[in-house]
Amino acid sequence: MKRFMLTFAFAAIALSMVSAQGYKVGDKAMDFRLKNVDGNFVSMSDYPDAKGFVIVFTCNHCPYAVAYEDRLIELDKKYKPRGFPVIAINPNDPAAEPRDSYELMQVRAREKGFTFPYLFDEGQKVYPVYGATRTPHIYLLNRVGSDLIVAYIGAIDDNYRDASAVEEPFLANAIDALLAGEKPDPDFTRAIGCTIKVAN
């Protein structure tokens, strides 16, 4: 009996480790239905004409996330008309980080004039499926038939400190590649940012 329980425990741990890894490039992404700062619920299915999506896990308080807000607005303005809108998701538990509460998300979105939805991952159900670990963390999705396929994962660019000093705009290059009918190269980079906050 003890051996069975140990085997079961190890199997459960292994399963949780696999599920915690989230999506890889080439995987089919799930849709979601999350509350936006305007009080409405948003899903990717609300965008039937989109060629894909820039899903960014981000938040209010993280200095890395804050540093990229203007760049995300510019990316949304540039690529939404071309079929790749930005959808931002706050994955943090406000019990662990009060500055990331839904109410303060509303304030932040209004202050910055976000041009994209800013959704609250209430109950932290979406970010583990995607495998996000940082804020910001990018998942670029490409529509293939009726599926949304992960085409790029990682960082927005190679310099969070200074937008004018960016040498490798990873995300923009990846979107441009998809628009040209090509595969992004690279299709994976290491996300740089704050760890996602989970209440104990």
Properties at a glance:
200 residues, seven-stranded mixed β-sheet, Glutaredoxin, globular, disordered N terminus
Structural write-up:
- With 200 residues, the protein is an alpha+beta fold.
- The chain has one domain (2-195): 3-Layer(aba) Sandwich (Glutaredoxin).
- The chain is 30% helix and 20% strand.
- It contains 5 helices and 9 strands; from the N terminus they run αβββαβαβαβββαβ.
- The longest helix is centred in the first third of the chain and has 19 residues, at 2-20.
- It is globular.
Short précis:
The protein is α+β, with helices and mostly antiparallel strands and 200 residues long. The protein has helices spanning 2-20, 63-79, 102-112, 127-130, 170-179, and strands spanning 34-36, 41-42, 52-57, 86-90, 118-120, 134-135, 137-144, 147-154, 194-195. The chain has one domain (2-195): 3-Layer(aba) Sandwich (Glutaredoxin), CATH 3.40.30.
Indicate the radius of gyration in whole angstroms: 17 Å
Tell me how many strands there are.
Answer: 9
Number of domains: 1
CATH topology: Glutaredoxin
* Uncertain ranges: 1-19
The backbone outline, from C-alpha atoms, is globular
Mean pLDDT: 91
Distance between the termini: 31 Å
> What CATH first level would be assigned?
Alpha Beta
Read across the widest sheet, the strand sequence of neighbours is 2-1-5-4-3-7-8
CATH superfamily: Glutaredoxin
How many H/I helical runs? 5
